[in-house]
From TrEMBL:
Enzyme Commission designation: 2.4.2.17
PANTHER family reported for this sequence: ATP PHOSPHORIBOSYLTRANSFERASE, ATP PHOSPHORIBOSYLTRANSFERASE ATP-PRTASE
Gene: hisG
InterPro entries: ATP-PRT_HisG_long, ATP_PRibTrfase_cat, ATP_PRibTrfase_CS, ATP_PRibTrfase_HisG, HisG_C, N-reg_PII-like_a/b, N-reg_PII/ATP_PRibTrfase_C
Cofactor: Mg(2+)
Cellular component, GO annotation: cytoplasm
Family statement: Belongs to the ATP phosphoribosyltransferase family. Long subfamily.
Identification of the protein by name: ATP phosphoribosyltransferase
Species classification: Bacteria, Pseudomonadati, Pseudomonadota, Gammaproteobacteria, Alteromonadales
Length: 298
């Protein structure tokens, strides 16, 4: 086997995106052992290699054609693209598909005691950030003048030690900000993980992606969907169908020895809340089961 005919995918080696990326690839049927120290892991059952690197290196590796695909946060992707544009380096890529993990926001945060009265109150201040390009773009679009200092980690500590007035950093729950005496004042960018590719793939690599992509989409759809089974009163079928989240038509099956009840099966493509189950129960439904789906296609 030659490396030219294998699709090379860059993923984060360790960090917030690595576990979910690895799980996604496994659920797509890729057999790989990334548990060891190998930085280039061979997939044994498909012509694919996985390159495990720092998140911040992934966009550049894809843009330079070293890797064919990459799984990376939109924040890292956008920051790198802006930086490379500025340096006159190749910054072209295609977003193959968005992924449903790695959700976070890039926010401006100030010390709790700061009197925030809108963006204008940030004018002339200095921010510590790992994302200077995204921050500069936001400041320009919003007509404020801010200064920044680059920190690759522990950004939250900057105001306390006098390095900056505020920070511009990634937030998911806000707990880290709170623990460091900071409050979120503006969201400047919302991010999720994405699968990206260099602009054009060789036909044989495109063929591998054509097999992989529907699997990725199937895994994501399955993750968001639930299989619901219940017994419903025959005369309440319409009300029961209306309560089902998602657009699938329910399957209705007879129940042995029961003229008043039927079995209803449906794939729900949206969140199935306890409130919906309670409403179904109130309609006279029984034996309500909500089950995870492992794979989906079509
Ligand atoms: P690396 O160390 O691999 O170069 P990193 O320092 O950005 O990258 P992580 O902190 O693991 O590594 O974050 C990886 C990505 O996870 C982020 O770029 C972002 O897209 C996503 N993410 C999701 N939630 C958060 C969060 N609360 N804080 C930081 N990143 C988050």
């Amino acid at each position: 086997m030659t490396t030219e005919t294998r699709l090379r995918i860059a993923m984060q080696k360790s960090g917030r995106l690595s576990d979910e990326t690895q799980q996604l690839l496994k659920r797509c049927g890729l057999k790989l052992n990334v548990g060891d120290r190998r930085l280039l892991a061979h997939v044994t059952n498909m012509p694919i290699d996985i390159m495990r690197v720092r998140s911040s290196d992934i966009p550049g590796l894809v843009m330079d054609g070293v890797c064919d695909l990459g799984i990376v946060g939109d924040n890292t992707l956008e920051e790198t693209a802006l930086e490379r544009e500025l340096l006159g380096q190749n910054s072209a890529y295609t977003k193959t598909t968005g992924l449903n993990f790695g959700g976070c926001r890039l926010s401006l945060a100030m010390p709790e005691e700061f009197n925030y009265t809108g963006l204008a109150s940030l004018d002339g201040l200095r921010f510590a950030t790992t994302y200077p390009q995204l921050m500069k773009r936001f400041a320009k679009e919003n007509g404020i003048n801010v200064d920044f200092c680059l920190l690759k980690g522990s950004v939250e500590v900057a105001p306390r030690v006098g390095l900056a007035d505020g920070i511009c950093d990634l937030v998911s729950t806000g707990a880290t900000l709170e623990a460091n005496g900071l409050k979120e004042v503006e969201v400047i960018y919302r991010s999720k993980a994405s699968l990206i590719q260099g602009v054009e793939l060789a036909p044989e690599k495109q063929a591998i992606l054509d097999t992989l992509l529907p699997r990725i989409q199937g895994v994501m759809k399955a993750k968001e969907s639930k299989y619901i089974m219940l017994h419903a009163p025959k005369d309440k079928l319409e009300e029961v169908s209306n309560l089902m989240p998602g657009k699938e038509t329910p399957t209705v099956l007879p129940l042995a020895g029961r003229d008043d009840l039927v079995a209803v099966h449906v794939v729900a493509t949206e969140t199935f809340f306890w409130e919906t189950m309670e409403a179904l129960k109130a309609l006279g439904c029984d034996s309500i089961l909500v089950m995870p789906i492992e794979k989906m296609m079509g």
